[in-house]
């Protein structure tokens, strides 16, 4: 049993990879954008994206805790931009004796990220473009690899097939 946290900029290929890994391993995939979009669509009119995001994560942690307690492997598909995400993830994995894994989808090409964001089928919680190069470089570009946690960084500018097997070996190994 494993708990995999995905990481990377919006548009870097996290969801595509998370779904493929989930399908190949039978792991439950918890997609942050699905939960956040559902809250934004059904919540009170004054619910802003920031509050919806925080609420989404609390729901997701509860779901992860439940599925791990049932002996199921779990994948959290979210940007994982904050250290507290890794802390909570590693704590839940330890609590349930699951192997903790972390995969970062690295894509530092702002034009490619912007193209992916503009051409994908988008949920209400998802970006439809890169806000600005400054925001991209500051908040999203570069590795978010956690300090002392083992991590696999995949270059998602390459063909999907070129790294899927490597990710599966890492997760199942």
From TrEMBL:
InterPro entries: P-loop_NTPase. Keywords: ATP-binding, Nucleotide-binding. GO terms for molecular function: ATP binding. Signal peptide: none annotated. It holds the Pfam family AAA_33. This is ATP-binding protein. It comes from Tumebacillus avium. The lineage of its organism: Bacteria, Bacillati, Bacillota, Bacilli, Bacillales.
